Amino acid sequence: MQSPAKTNIFNLANLLSIIRVFLAIPFVFILEEHSLVNNSDTAWKVFFLLFLIVLSDVLDGYVARKMNQISNLGKLLDPIADKICLVIVMVFLIFDQGLPFLLFFLLLSIRDVYIIIIGLYLIHVQNIVFQANKSGKYFMAVTTLMMASFVFRDTFNLSINVCWLLYVISLIFMVISGYEYHYRYIKYFNRISSEDKEV
Q: How far lies 141's CA from each of 86, 95, 122, in Å?
């Protein structure tokens, strides 16, 4: 069987991740329009584009597994595409909600910079790429729901308490997923260190 890392990088799974990156461009303008007008029409535009982004995220992973199109490029493209879309909404919410989302953004940046630095080392030195852990996927799902609740709160009269509850849950998943990445990296480095000592 073909090695996942050697799978052709020009495949449907990677194309879906690239499409998600390009969807971020109209997403910026639609969010800006919604912030200025804030009615049901602009809300549905945001919702539709957000739906396409989430759908592409679900489909690229499904296609990669079912069609054996897992590749190192795909493992990198998927979280990068996620983060681009997430940061766009995060910046919008920083201007809208202020300090809590600035704090969220700073914590997320620290977590992601750590993951990226270790990830780049593993790619270039160890020739290995770890896939996203399950808690990371849960974190993205809850965070998407949380940010959507704030974006659509005024339009659909959502309870602010529900929005902030989702914010706290998202923070919890951020910490859990960050710890699991750290634990997995430490476990891997300990294993290769013990293998080197045995040689």
A: 11, 22, 26
